[in-house]
Amino acid sequence: MTRPTPRLAAAAPRMPADQRINSDLLRPLTETSWRFYALVAVFGGIVLAAIVAWLSQVTRGFGITGIRWPIYWGFYVTSFVFWIGISHAGTLISAILRLVNAGWRRPVTRCAEVITVFALMIGAMFPIVHLGRPWLAFWLFPYPSERMIWPNLRSPLVWDFFAINTYLTGSVLFLFLPMIPDFAVVRDKSTGRRHRIYRALALGWRGTPRQWHRLETAMQIMAIAIIPVAVSVHTIVSFDFSMAPVPMWQTTIFGPYFVAGAIFSGIAALLIAMAVLRRFLHLEDYLHPVHFENLGKLLLVMALLWGYFVFNERLVTYYGNKPAEMAVFWRTQRESFAPLYWTMVTGNFILPLLLMGIRRFRTITGCVIASIGVVVGMWLERFLIIVPALGHKYLPYSFAVYRPQPVEILIAGATFAAMTLLYVLFAKVVPIISIWELKAGAHVPSALVPPATQEHPLGELHL
Amino acid sequence: MDRRSFIKLTAVTGTSAALSGCGNPAAPLVRFVPDEDIMPGVAAWKPGVCPLCAAGCGLTVRVMDADADVVRNGQAGVVRILAAKKLEGGPMHPINQGGLCARGQAAIQVTYHPDRITQPLKRAGNRGDGRYEAISWDDALKEIVSRLDALEGVGNQKALAFVARHAYGHRAALVAQFLGRYGAPGPITYELFGDEVLRRANALSFGREQRPTFDLPNARFVLGFGADFLGTWNSPVAQGHGYGAMRQGRPGIRGAFVQVESRMSQTGANADEWVPARPGTEGVLALGLANVIIGAKLRPADAAGRAGSLIDGWSAGLSAYTPAEVERATGVAARRIERLARQFADTRPAVAIIGGPPLAHTNGLFSALAVNALNALVGSVEQPGGVFFTPQLDVVAAAKLQNVATTAPPPALDRFAAGILSAGAAPPQVLFIDGVNPVYAAPSAWRVREAFEKIPFIASFGSFLDDTSKLADLILPDHTFLESWSEAVPESGATIAVASVAPPVMSPLHQTRATADVLLDVGRRLRRPVALPWQTFDEMLAATFGALPKATPDADTWSDAQEKGGWWGTLPAGLAAAAAPAPAARPVTSAEPQFDGDPQQYPFHFLPYPSSAFLDGSLAHLPWLQEMPDPLTSAMWSSWVEVNPATATRLGIGQGDVVEIASAHGTVRTAAMISPGIAPDVLAMPVGQGHQTFTRYASGRGESPVPLLAPLTEPATGALAWAATRVRMSRVGDPDGRLILFAGGMREETETRR
Amino acid sequence: MPKWGMTADLDRCNGCGACVTACHAENNISTVGADEAARGRAKHWIRVERYWEGEFPDARLKFRPVMCQQCDNAPCEPVCPTYASHHTADGLNAQVYNRCIGTRYCANACPYNVRFFDFFNPSWDKPLHLQLNPDVSLREVGVMEKCTFCVQRIKAVTIQAKADDRPVADGEIQPACAQACPAQALVFGDLDDPESAVSRLSRSSRGSKLLEDLGTRPSVTYLDRQSRTDA
Q1: Does pTM top 0.95 for this prediction?
Q2: Quick one: pLDDT at residue A350?
Q3: Which residue in A24, A384, B28, B55 is a FRET match for A200, CA 20 to 30 A apart?
Q4: B1–A392: do the CB atoms touch at under 8 Å?
Q5: ipTM (interface predicted TM)
Q6: What's B713's DSSP letter?
């Protein structure tokens, strides 16, 4: 095979030698500092507090939240949509970048896929957390009951159930499959109980060409299949809103708008995760500034896309001039919710444009700042879709103001702690950067590997 | 979820096996044998009479089986009883004709109230502490009897005072008879929102000393002066029923309604035209209309007859009341006066209604006489679509009793209190309180509480501990209306005579006794017995109802009445309350209303008004009424003061801000409610909250405007001029959560056009 | 099969609120208390909306009783994941408390905001519980509740009529609100019977539906309040 041209060398950064890769990426599994325990204790404590809070909500009554007539969705549904949105990180990075053979994806794929799985798990909890009678949540599952009654397939919430479960299943697969060779590496390097666990996880991986071929084929199929699933999941989540005749909810733009926003927030979450990992696990040699720059450029594109959707939606609403819609429009943009609205615009649009658009600011720090802004902005965007409209529908006598209560704030906030906790625990047991993929990028694969995964140097076209 | 404890709310099976599942095997639930024959699950409908206001609406009560927690012989247990479940308006009753107001619906909570006094109580601590111990009925009655005997022994029977709510009817007649035969003065009645001024005006104008009845279904033009006749005034359900018919009950004919007032009431909100006028000038406005009608020769002046002759200058055409003059006095434009006058005279039948704030001024009698004259002028007195007077049963005559000449007519409450507090006269020794709360509902300037505290012995018959009854030394709790014989002889609301009566709907829940029966019992036990011909109250009712005209020759009026919920029809002359004799009255000239408080220091007129939920505060203990959103403000569990928007802006007061209102007699702090329906120099505050003591639902809740009221009275009747107080207002602070509103927006336009 | 409907005559309604309390009494609606009412948890299945117009001295005020409109095209029905909100053959939107898991989607979808949530288990200070209507289920925490057109009364009369082998007479069924209203502003009946009072009133030229252009096809017709210049 020809050696990579200098152009490609810029796209696929040079990685350390194989031996160092193993030792660097396996170190978190074998060495544990006090910081790990402190982190787990703190975030675990927050998560525990949130669980206790939710249990008190179940036993004392839903009334301890700030939900009220007629604003019946608040922090919980905001968190739900937000975390499902974050989960699109993995899809974009892993699947799309995998399909277009972007080599620079290699160190970041697993980071992204992990975000997806955990964000989905956290998000998928909220349909249960926000129920009035959560002990009956199993009625959402289609099982033959003695009452001959099934879930209502016309309800977007039932679609959510199927879509999220499908996506979760797919994402777990998508995460797990490429972990197999890495489990094998750990298996081979460990002894005792650890050896037994990883041997079970490695599913008998021996690294034969046939197994590699199967793995790559499976990854290819998953990559292609997971994209429409992801698009449909967040579209279906958006249907939770657009299927109700609430002013500013009933708009056709919600499907693509939510998907774009999801990818947007996913990239931001990924950038933050990468930056943190790079610092705390000393992965400076693996996560190079160019990775952040490339993702930063994607963040910029998504910010522009987000801005486009918002502008589109608001301009059309403005021209439509329907009284009920305009009332919610102004409520968000100019009246009581204006501070939150303009914070959202700053975080989602102005900051990314400045920081990611100006080359000088497109550093790792710049990316992190922009990403934090996007995460805040996207959370606010979900909140601002839900709450201002519900408090201001059609009959003014029934308008009201939502005031979130400690239990909701705690649970919503604890999701961030939960995400961090799960991430930290995951990084403790699985190499956070996919070892074999990294190595595969440095060594161009053999002829037995399916052609589609070959990286084609410029100037040679194989179709 | 512990469903078992949840289901316990509706049915208790009462076996210890079931209970061990509930986790309490040590105290098995005893099920007593029911006292009555009960078919489970089958509802029966029984007649009833609503006691909450003077209207006396007839009820039909749904009765079904229920399990009540009772204590029998010191043992707690459960017994199946027939329980009232729902109150509805009696469909055939001439007053309410099937309808029932929100308060009437909530009346059932009186019977089932958790803080009802369940047995006789004797004071255990200092007066006013609210500490009592239970005693038996025997002991309680012995105490009463000994006190009354003591007074009689020294010939001091007139030292017995009795404070009651003003009511016509059998109970009031019984009380009067008891007092009269005992030798005590007649009962002192006190109603904060009573209509003494209107009664006096009707006596003068029409010879009928009673509240008026309006034939709204046949009216084509209704002109209201301040009367909240669809909400809280006079006979609201009857009037509401009539209003509906007036508007849409006649194909092709819709009655018009104009309301004149300084603060938009719930009634005024329904007007086709709402006319704000300065407080206390409504009578002048009425005469301005009369001036135009007479001047334009739409009606001759003498058409107003006696009612017109009571107004000085009437026969000369009321030259002092030209539209220009009246505009100057009232603030209503002259052009508007002319137009309204013509519409009022040309649209027949037309009727004018005056009540509430206009009569609560020092010139209230004048205003009432003016409106009476206006009605007489357009020929709407005792004519279809006009004003009528309900023939009233003379209970004393029907019971074939003698009218007891009391030693002296009882004083009004303020003079009664003043008399006690003045060093001169000897105070009463014994005070009975029956169904009134004057400590709450009287202005603090009258010092009713101080006066009562000087009386050595106070007994209360009420079912609840309230601001007044907590001063009692002895409490003999009455049954509630569903548990005893209830009756009413309505003063207004129908054009035929009505006497409502209903047997007890259910057995008493607690160890209470009907006050009427207690009085009869006490009367028999006295050393010098009060000789009344009945053992129990229902015997008195049987006697009076038996005297009423029969529907058919062999009908039994008494049993018919018990089935129907009353008797109604035409009274023979001997049984109808007599018309008041024509007074030798001099024509009344208009007097400027007097207000208490210097206008510089106290720039606002203060308008306390009966709240839709609680009227004069006597219903604040009912939780449904506390939670019912006020019709105008949507407020629940709250007090507020209504402020004009421009005034609020001028004083920097925002919606919900805490403000302090001060008169020369008291201050109150409450939440401000910005309201477009009130004049800039008027502040209105609903009466009803602000009880210190009145069950768990009302104690310490909200604020009352009553303590601020100036002790100004209407000179002829002595009635409290409760709209005559001036106040000042200042902002105290930001909203503090005391104002609880159900509604969000106040206006329908969600957004202005851009 | 009857199709139940109501008319609300805004010219008769004077805002007294009798309907509100009557509904509480009939349907075992728990009183939530001052603190919870302040947090927006009061459950007034029927409410009398009031709207100001104009400014002093030309201020005007309108009343409008609003209850569940029992929409033919109810937006609350497709969105309920468990079929707790569904349409019956006689034109009612039924709320099955036992099937509700409390997602509250139906309440968000309802443009009239007539659906209420039980935020806590209801409680009645004894012996207020003796007043409870045995014909109406008590709702536990976490379920949605709303006006049912007093379905218990509909059922009771329908069953009795069937037992007596006769049709239900017009006006025989009266929801609690309609029965209490002193001004007889609320009329209930069978819209499929063209001669019933509710049908005749629904055809009035004063009649309109609330939020008609949302396409919910409510079963309640509001008869406009007239002004003096009208007939």
Answers
A1: no
A2: 96
A3: A24
A4: no
A5: 0.97
A6: B
